[in-house]
Write a sequence for this structure.
């Protein structure tokens, strides 16, 4: 199916999603799986436009936590995570915990990366740091085998499994949303002051690569198999 979503527009949006520190406070609407869909609108972050194309890269060595700190310093400068996280904020970290595999296999985010982000957000003054994912496999096994639950808890996070009754049906509105009409989204992601999307780079037979835009599917409920029909357009809508 032809699509006029340009490569430039995709890369610009992907750059904004890469760190994905999205100010989501002040969302409007209620809605739920059994009620009327709600239209949630993220509060625009004052630095969003300036940060769309910024990338912080760290490589080498065998310490994922150190590389995380180095990448954030390159991305954010001396203020680090405080650029986005303010005192009293409710922060949601959405790592890829989608599979019941050990960290060495690379199917999920390294637990040291998640723990480092938890500590940074707490040091920045976050009131609460929540960690969750709507895993593909059995959630508790994914949380355990990945090592993320243990590492995040020890760093000071509130780690929990997704509860079915806490998904809220959200409308996708506006000119950029072209295929998804509505979808159940986890309410903690909608209500957070800051959402940090933490992906692991992997290949994928449909999207070719799995990064932050696809990792956001972890806040979705419903039949996510339908997302794979015209997956590129659906992911663009989800990340709008």
């Amino acid at each position: 199916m032809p699509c006029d979503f340009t490569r430039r527009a995709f890369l610009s949006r992907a750059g904004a999603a890469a760190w994905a520190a999205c100010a989501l406070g002040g969302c409007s609407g209620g809605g739920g799986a059994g009620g009327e869909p709600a239209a949630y609108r993220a509060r625009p972050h004052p630095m969003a436009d300036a940060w769309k194309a910024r990338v912080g890269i760290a490589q080498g060595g065998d310490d994922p936590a150190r590389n995380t700190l180095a990448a954030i310093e390159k991305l954010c400068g001396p203020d680090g995570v405080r650029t986005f996280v303010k005192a009293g904020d409710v922060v949601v970290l959405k790592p890829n915990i989608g599979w019941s595999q050990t960290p060495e296999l690379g199917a999920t985010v390294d637990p040291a990366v998640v723990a480092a982000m938890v500590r940074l957000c707490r040091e920045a003054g976050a009131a609460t740091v929540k960690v969750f994912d709507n895993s593909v496999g059995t959630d508790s096994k994914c949380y355990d085998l990945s090592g993320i639950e243990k590492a995040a808890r020890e760093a000071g996070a509130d780690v929990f499994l997704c509860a079915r009754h806490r998904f809220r049906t959200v409308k996708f509105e506006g000119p950029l949303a072209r295929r998804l009409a509505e979808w159940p989204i986890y309410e903690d992601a909608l209500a957070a002051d800051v959402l940090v999307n933490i992906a692991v780079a992997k290949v994928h037979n449909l999207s070719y690569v799995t990064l932050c835009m696809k990792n956001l599917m972890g806040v979705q409920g419903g039949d996510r198999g339908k997302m794979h029909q015209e997956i590129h357009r659906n992911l663009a809508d989800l990340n709008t």
About this structure: Residues 134 and 218 are 5 Å apart (CA to CA). The radius of gyration is 17 Å. The beta strands are 22-23, 90-95, 128-131, 158-159, 167-171, 182-186, 194-198, 202-204, 208-210.
